[in-house]
Design brief:
Elements (H helix, E strand, L loop, with lengths): L2 H11 L4 E5 L27 H4 L2 H6 L1 H11 L9 H11 L3 E6 L5 H5 L4 E3 L2 E8 L5 E3 L18 E5 L8 H13 L2 E5 L20 E4 L12 E3 L3 H5 L3
Bound molecules: 2'-O-acetyl adenosine-5-diphosphoribose.
2'-O-acetyl adenosine-5-diphosphoribose binds next to loops.
Length: 238
């Protein structure tokens, strides 16, 4: 076993208030592409940049185009939790991990059994009417063409945070609370490029900050331990 994994194991062994903060890289080993890697969603060519398609104003003006992208690129059908999701859920069940804070919208942490999951960017597994606000089943979005509509005529949308939209206040306050009180913060599978989510890690006050990411991030200088391996492979060893 390599030295970094050994260090990570020791840190986990000595902690009982671990918080995990993650992003799209946590789900790549489940077959869901991330955003900014070379084979990620943002390095493919579309009629509009993905950040534009995933924005509030675009959704309002071009729901058909949004849904084409949604069905084509945001599909999570058949994706299964990988070793990272599963081990995090086990650590929570063992009383060592307090919260998973994720930017992901795929529901895979809950599928693995995690209970306290703070979804900063919402979830594709929930949907609501953009006009009357009524919650509807996410299955309503599975229309083969066109745009799914509510009984009131409004366009149904996924319960995700689009660009130009604010994060949910309670989720952010909860994330700050857990990070501030954590004795160990594990950050994994995120480029830390998107704010305000990325800024939340600055609330950590401890001395066990671990970064598990294949590429460099802006938080490398803050980390007490950096592991550049695949996160699923790392978690399968701790
Ligand atoms: P990114 O695509 O920006 O970053 C994913 C990071 O994970 C990259 O640094 C990869 O090197 C790393 N990575 C990929 N696979 C990995 C693996 N198996 N093991 C370890 N590291 C791996 O994704 P996020 O940081 O999640 O927001 O992006 C943040 C937000 O940008 C998303 O939530 C989304 C997007 O726009 C919205 O849609 C609002």
């Amino acid at each position: 076993m390599n030295e970094n994994i050994q260090k990570l194991r020791e840190m986990v062994r000595g902690s009982d208030n671990i918080v995990f903060f993650g992003g799209a890289g946590v789900s790549t080993e489940s077959g869901i592409p991330d955003f900014r890697s070379v084979d990620g969603l943002y390095n493919q060519t579309y009629a509009f940049p993905p950040e534009t398609i995933l924005s509030h104003s675009f959704f309002e003006k071009n729901p058909e185009e949004y849904y084409r992208f949604h069905h084509d690129k945001l599909s999570i059908a058949g994706a299964k939790p990988n070793a990272a999701h599963i081990r995090l859920a086990q650590l929570e069940a063992e009383g060592k991990l307090r919260a998973v804070i994720t930017q992901n919208i795929d529901g895979l942490h809950q599928a693995a059994g995690s209970k306290n999951v703070l979804e900063l960017h919402g979830s594709l597994l929930r949907a609501y009417c953009s006009r009357c606000g009524k919650s509807v089943s996410a299955e309503c979005m599975n229309v083969s063409e066109g745009v799914p509509r509510c009984d009131c005529g409004g366009v149904i949308r996924p319960d995700i945070v689009l660009y130009e939209e604010a994060l949910d206040d309670d989720t952010v306050s909860g994330a700050i609370h857990f990070i501030r009180n954590a004795d160990m913060l594990i950050i994994g599978g995120t480029s830390l490029a998107v704010y305000p989510a990325a800024g939340l890690i600055n609330y950590y006050r401890g001395h066990k900050l671990v970064l598990i990411n294949r590429t460099e991030t802006g938080a490398d200088a803050m980390a007490d331990l950096i592991i550049r391996d695949k996160i699923g492979e790392v978690f399968s060893q701790i």
